[in-house]
């Protein structure tokens, strides 16, 4: 078992800069005159030590905050809500409270997070910069990252948790192929900035690899990506169908995207599942209550949540857990029925 890394204190900054803690306080708060040479020494010490003032628990110097932060891209997403609900109980049982925060992906955001001195951070984001993850680790904060990309490596105290994205995407495509589909559209994420998934995105890689294993390349014509809204995605889907392009299967990056594409197909006069079969991802409520009910991929949320908390607790104790990868489950419903 390793030693838990101590947080940098104001006394450490003062010692390195060769000044009193009072001078350090004046510089950090910028509320008193400090001679230029002393100010520069303090600022350099702050940079070298990666010191961040504790804005929440200054009165609890040296004591743990018993707080874990979960950073996600879309905090209103049903999947994230379910994960947080599961993690909350496991965290509470381990003596922690968990907070949910939307990803802002800026240096200021990373600094604000560090200043609050969480005992651990869990990240599920397709856009959060690795640079900020490493800032967290340099500040001595254990980090668990839900894997999103094929190549995802960090230095420092980071544990990787695979949630079944790659395996799930391959299962979805394999199921469509088993149902006789050969002209499958992949409907990618919706991004307000129009950003498609990265080339090494695990779900995208799963789609590509499963299609190629069956002698079918994924061409640009069979991808819907860079859409800013559900309305835009539906319109692109309709345009492809109305152009006469042959489509007999749709796989959506999540259930809401798959549902949007499925409704666009139905509105264009196609029958699901007779003409086009559809698979989503996440097993959210919309997949269970839409018409037809949608085949989807379910992730093992209970075990994912427990493992994430267990990893944080282990790292707080000075251990470095091994990476873990969970499998996912294909849930068959009406949208891929072959009978």
Architecture blueprint of SSEs:
Blueprint lengths: L9 H8 L3 H9 L6 H14 L17 E6 L5 H16 L3 E6 L4 H9 L4 E5 L5 H9 L4 E4 L11 E5 L2 H14 L5 E4 L14 H12 L9 E2 L5 H13 L6 E4 L2 H13 L9 E3 L5 H5 L6 E4 L1 H16 L7 E2 L2 E4 L8
Helix pairs in contact: 1-2, 1-3, 2-3, 4-12, 5-6, 7-8, 9-10
State the CATH architecture of the largest domain. Answer: 3-Layer(aba) Sandwich
Number of helices: 12
Strand content: 5-15%
**Low-confidence region ranges:** 55-61
From the 3D structure, determine the CATH topology of the largest domain. Answer: Rossmann fold
Biggest sheet features: 6 strands, parallel
Please state the CA-atom Rg, rounded to the nearest Å.
24 Å
CATH classification class of the largest domain: Alpha Beta
Distance between the termini: 57 Å
Tell how many strands the DSSP assignment holds. Answer: 12
Compressed to H and E, one letter per element, the order equals: HHHEHEHEHEEHEHEHEHEHEHEE
Mean pLDDT: 91
The tally of structural domains comes to: 3
């Amino acid at each position: 078992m390793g030693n838990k890394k101590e947080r940098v204190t104001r006394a450490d900054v003062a010692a390195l800069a060769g000044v009193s803690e009072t001078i350090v306080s004046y510089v950090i708060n910028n509320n008193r005159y400090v001679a230029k040479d002393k100010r520069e020494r303090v600022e350099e010490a702050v940079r070298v030590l990666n010191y961040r003032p504790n804005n929440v628990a200054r009165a609890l110097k040296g004591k743990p905050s018993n707080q874990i932060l979960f950073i996600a891209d879309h905090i209103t997403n049903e999947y994230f809500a379910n994960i947080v609900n599961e993690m909350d109980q496991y965290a509470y049982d381990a003596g922690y409270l968990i907070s949910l925060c939307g990803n802002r992906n800026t240096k200021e955001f990373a600094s604000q997070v560090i200043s609050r001195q969480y005992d651990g951070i869990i990240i599920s984001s397709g856009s959060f910069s690795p640079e900020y993850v490493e800032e967290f680790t340099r500040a001595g904060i254990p980090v668990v990252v839900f894997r999103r990309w094929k190549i995802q490596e960090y230095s420092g105290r980071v544990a990787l948790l695979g949630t079944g994205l790659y395996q799930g995407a391959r299962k979805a495509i394999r199921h469509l192929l088993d149902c006789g589909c050969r002209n499958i559209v992949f409907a990618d994420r919706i991004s307000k900035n129009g950003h498609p998934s990265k080339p090494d995105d695990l779900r995208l890689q799963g789609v590509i690899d499963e299609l190629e294993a069956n002698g079918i390349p994924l061409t640009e014509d069979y991808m819907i990506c860079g859409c800013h809204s559900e309305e835009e995605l539906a319109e692109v889907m309709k345009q492809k169908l109305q152009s006469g392009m042959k489509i007999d299967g749709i796989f959506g990056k999540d259930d809401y995207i798959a549902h949007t594409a499925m409704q666009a197909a139905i509105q264009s006069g196609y029958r699901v599942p007779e003409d086009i079969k559809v698979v989503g991802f996440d097993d959210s409520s919309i997949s269970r209550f839409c018409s037809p009910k949608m085949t989807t991929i379910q992730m093992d949320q209970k075990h994912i949540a427990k493992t994430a908390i267990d990893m944080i607790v282990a790292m707080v104790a000075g251990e470095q857990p091994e990476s873990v990868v969970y499998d996912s489950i294909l849930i068959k419903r009406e949208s891929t029925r072959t009978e």
